[in-house]
Each structure stands twice: as C-alpha cells, then as structure tokens.
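Morning run. Coffee first, then this:
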Amino acid sequence: MGAGCSLLPSFSLGAFQEEFTRNQLIGKGNPDISGDSYTSTMHRETAQALKKMSTAAATEGIKIEVVSAYRSFDRQKQIFEGKYKRFTGQGLSPMEAIEKIIEYSTIPGTSRHHWGTDLDLIDANAPRPESVLQAQHYHGKGPFCKFKEWMDKHAESFGFYEVYTDNANRKGFEYEPWHFSYAPVSIPMLKAYEKLDVKAILQEESIMGHEHFTDEFITKYRKENILDINPKLLS
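And here it is:
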C-alpha cells in the first residue's frame, strides 16, 4: 500500500437508509442526484466517496476519470432501442437481438446506472485507447493495468466494489473491470428494487420489444443479469 494509506476512510454499509420511489429506482428522477455534466452527475454520497478515492489514487500517479455515471431511463431507452433496431435490421430475430444487447447493455428501467451509484472508470494518466471500455485494457500490458491493481487493493476501502466480476461461474452481463458501485447506497437501492414488478414496468413504459419479455425471460434476466453480481453487493 502506497502513500494513499493515510487517506483510506472507514464506512458502514448500514449507515445509509432511505425510502426509494419507483421513479428513483428506474431512472426517472432522483432528488439525491447532483452534477453538472454527463460524467459528474451521480448520487451525492457517491460523489463524496469518489472524491476521497480520487485524492488517494492521485498520490500514486493515478487520475481516476469517470466515463459514465448516472444514466436516466430515457437515455438507457435510447441506447437499448437503437441497438434493437440495428440488430433486427441486420436480420436477427427480436429475441436474438435482445440476447445480444444484454451481453453488456441493460434493458431501460433495470440499469444500476439509474441509481447514480455506479460508475465506469479509467485512468486518465494512462495512454487512451480508441475504445476505453474493453477488458483487455485492464490486464496484461493494457494501459489501465496499474489502475486495476490499485482499485483491487483500495477501492473497497472507499465503499466501491466491482460489479460484474471475472468469475467463470457468474452469468448475466459480461465481465466489466471498469464498472464500480458505491455499496453503502447501491445495496439498499437494490433491496428496494427487488420489490418492483419489472415485467409490469417494462410493459407500462412500452420498451421496444417488450412483447417478447415473457415471464420466463424476466425470471432469468432478474436472476442472472440483475442479481448474479459481486456477492458483496447483495447484502
């Protein structure tokens, strides 16, 4: 552990308690979200923890850069439906298109980025590849290896946990070494989210392709994509 040791804080997962509305949980408005740009907009508690973690990382030559933070329902809908149109236009069936999309992208209304607690991170001091969010950049001789090593050692001390880990037994979304969640807020939000009727929400919001979201699909998606994550983010 380097010079950032003295900056490592302590936190309690049980310290943050709040009632969450349906709209907060699906990205349609959250009074706790702050920020003035796409990459700075996030939950206020997440922002405070990120600032502390960034200060510690800077002492070891790492400049933490956020490339994606809070993402609204409408923005996620644009992403999902844009891919849905493209893939079905290429000849994939609706279900084939949906399965391809959810390798990395969430269905709107189900994204952890809706909560403002989850961030996609890189090291701004490292050489910047054309496409930054690729797992290969965080391993071997990739530009973000130093960042990855630092985060593996220190991120949890600030409350941040990798969400979609490199676990061969994990299902759902592919491995994302850039995606971290601020657990003190995201854990209670996930608990509240689990009480929602996801299928009903997707039908109410008229998500493109929603007629293919069968009970079987939703059950599988909930189990694998929403809940098959780093177990430290489940309780």
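The domain at 16-228 is CATH 3.30.1380.10 (Muramoyl-pentapeptide Carboxypeptidase; domain 2). Good start to the day.
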